[in-house]
C-alpha cells in the first residue's frame, strides 16, 4: 500500500505526546465520541455511565490486541439499537447482554477464519449489494422510535396512550436544527461533534421550556458505581436463544462497517493496517470489546468514524492519545453527577438528534450502494436489495418455535446472504471493496 499521507504527522502512532498536551489531545477524542456513545444507552434503557466504562475498557483492550499499532477509539454501536430494544422486551437487559456476548464471540470466530483463510471470502458473503440494504433497514426500523421520542410525552407507553405535546416537538425541532447547522457550517474540531453541540443546544431549549429536572443531578453523589447488568450473574442459567438469534446476525453489518473503517484509517495514517497488524487482530479487538461491554451491561462497541475524523484533522495518530481518552471515559463513568446530568436530558432532545442520526444510518447504506457502483438495472441486484428491505422493514418478528423468535432485520440479512450465494451471475460488485484496497 502506498503512503498517501501527504503531510507529515505531528505525532506518529508510536509517539507519546508531551505531558502538558496529553490531556487536551485526549479530551478531543473524548468529546468526539461522547454524544453518540451516551445516546445509544439512553435510547435502549441502559446506563450511560456503564457505556462510558465499557467504551474505555473496550478501547484499551483493542489497543492491546492490535499491539498498539492502530489508533482507533471504540464507542457504542448504533447498529445494535433495535436488537437491544427487542431483546430487552423479551428477557430484560440481561437477555440483551447475553446476545451481545455471543455477537462478540462471532467476531472472534470470523477473526480466526480470516487468520486461516484470508479475507476475500468475507466480501463474497457480504458484498455491498447485501450490506447496503441491511444498513438501510437498520436506519428505517428506528424511524418510529425517533419520531415518538420527539412528539409524545411518554414515548414508551402503549400507542393508544400517546399524548401529543407541542412543547416536545418544538424542542425536538430546535435540537434537530442546531445539529444540522453544526454539521453543515461548523469547521475543524467543532465540525466533528455536531451531536454533542445539538444535544447541548437542545438541552438549553428544554431548560427554558421547563422540561429539565436538575434535582437528580443535585442529589447524585460525586462517586457512584455504574449500573451493571451481568448476564451470567443476573440471568437464568437457561440461555435465551431468542436473544442470541436477535443480536448475533447484526455482526454481519458491523463486520463490514469495521472493515471499511480500517481502510479509511489506513489511508489517513498512511499504513496498511489490514496487513499489519492484520484485519484478524482488529476484528478480534472489536469482538473482545463487545464481550467486555456485555459482561458489565454496556452496549456493544464498534470503531468510531468521529474519532477517525479527529485523526485526519489533527494529524496526531498517537495510540497514547487514544489510550488517554479511554482512561478519561473510565474516570467519568464513576462520576455520579456526570451520569445524572446525562440522564436528565429530556426525551425530545434525544428524539430530535435521533431523527437525523437514524436517517444518516439509512442514507449510509444508500451511499455504500452508490460508491460500490451497484447496478440496479441488473435484476439480480434488484431482487436481493428489494427482498432485504421489505423483510427487514415489514417484519417485526418471525417465530419459528415457542423459544426461538427471529427479528425481521436479522432474517432479512440471512435471506440476503442466501440470495447472494444462490442466485446465478455474481459479478464485479462483490469484489469491488477489496479490489479498491488492493489497488491502494
UniProtKB/TrEMBL annotation:
Molecular function as annotated in GO: xanthine transmembrane transporter activity
Annotated compartments: Membrane
Keyword Chloroplast belongs to the record: no
Major subcellular site: membrane
One protein family per Pfam: Xan_ur_permease
The keyword Membrane appears for this protein: yes
Keyword annotations from UniProtKB, A to Z: Membrane, Transmembrane, Transmembrane helix, Transport
Coiled coil location: none
Bilayer topology: Multi-pass membrane protein
Cellular component annotations (GO), alphabetically ordered: plasma membrane
Family the entry assigns: Belongs to the nucleobase:cation symporter-2 (NCS2) (TC 2.A.40) family.
PANTHER family in alphabetical order: PURINE PERMEASE C1399.01C-RELATED
UniProt protein name: Uracil permease
Organism of origin: Jeotgalibacillus salarius
Gene of this entry: uraA
